[in-house]
Amino acid sequence: MHAWMCETLDGPAALQWRERPTPQPADDEVLIAIHAASLNFPDLLIVQGKYQMRPELPFAPGAEFAGVVEAVGSAVKHLQVGMPVAALGGHGGFATHACVKAMQVMPLPAGFPLRDAAAFAFTYGTAHHALIDRAALQAGETVLVLGAAGGVGTAAIQIAKAAGATVIAAASTDAKCDLCREIGADATINYATTPLRDALKDVTKGKGVDVVFDPVGGSHAEPAFRAIAWRGRYLVIGFAEGQIPALPWNLPLLKGASIVGVFWGDFVRREPAANARMLGVLASQYGHGLIKPVIDEVLPLSKLSDAYRRLENRQILGKLVMVPDELLAKA
User: Fold this and answer.
1) Which of 15, 174, 222, 309 gets the highest tally of CB atoms within 10 A of its CB?
2) What is the per-residue pLDDT for 331?
3) For residue 212, what are the domain limits?
4) How far is residue 41's CA from residue 20's CA, in Å, rounded to a whole number?
5) Residue 329 phi, psi (nearest 5)
6) Does residue 78 sit in the same domain as residue 96?
7) Domain with 108 in it: what CATH number?
8) In total, how many domains does the chain have?
9) Is residue 273 very low, low, confident or very high in pLDDT (cuts 50, 70, 90)?
C-alpha cells in the first residue's frame, strides 16, 4: 500500500508519499481498500499538531473515507469482505488502504456512491448532532449558519431545512452565497461586504435568530451573538478563522441565551449507539433526496498538497474528495 505520511507536525507541505506494508486487521478491525477520502478542516489542524487528537508519529492523515472491505478481524460479525462502507478512522484515509475499528465503519445502503459516502458522515454527523441533538431545533425557528459554503456549513443548511427551519447563510463571497441559495438557504449575507449584525437585524426584522451554527469563530462571533433571539442557542462548532473568540458574559444573560459546545468526535466515542441511530436517520434522508454532499471537485490523491492549499485559502465550496490515482484513471 501507499500513504501520505505525517512524520513531523510541520503542516501539509511536510507530508511524504511512502510505500508501507499493508496492515492486517486486529480482531475488532476491518481492512478497507480506499476508493475516496474527503478533506476536512481537522485534517489541517492534525498535521499542524493543533487538533484535540494527536496520533503517534508517523501517521497518515485523512479522517473520513469510503471503500470496500478487504479483510475482517475474527471478532467482527456485521461486516463482510466485499461490502461497501464509509469509515471515520480519525486518520489514515489519505492512503490506498487502512485498518479501522469495526465500530467506526458504516455499511452503505444500495445506491450510495462511494464518493458521496466519503464526504458524508463527518459534516452531516456534526451538523445533525449540533442542530437536532444539542440545539433541539424546531420547525419554524430561524438558523444562522456561519461559514455556510464550507463542508459543514452546506450540511447544516440542508439539515436545518429538512427540520423545517428558516436558514440564513453567511459567507465571504457572492459566489459562496449563490451556492447557499442553490442548496436551500432562504437568505444570504456576504459578511465581507455587509456588517453582519446590521444585516441580521434587517433579515429577521429585529427578532434575531434562534440558533447560531458557528464553525468559524473569530471576528464574526460577537456580532452574531448580539443578533441572537431570546432563548437563543449559540453552537460552538470550531474556529476555522483561527482565533478563539472571547464574548462578554453579559450577552447570554441579557438574551436568556445558551452557549452550547459541539464535539461530534467525542459524541461518537461516548455515545456510539446514539451516533449509529443518527447515521441511520441521515442515510434515510440521503435516500429520500433531502441531503446530499456538495462536492467542489474530485482530485487525484497525488494532488493532496493542492487540496490542502485550497482549504487553507478558503477556496473550497462544499468539500474536496481525493481518489487514488489508479482508480481515478479507470473512472
Assistant:
1) 15
2) 62
3) 122-265
4) 26
5) -65, -30
6) yes
7) 3.90.180.10
8) 2
9) confident
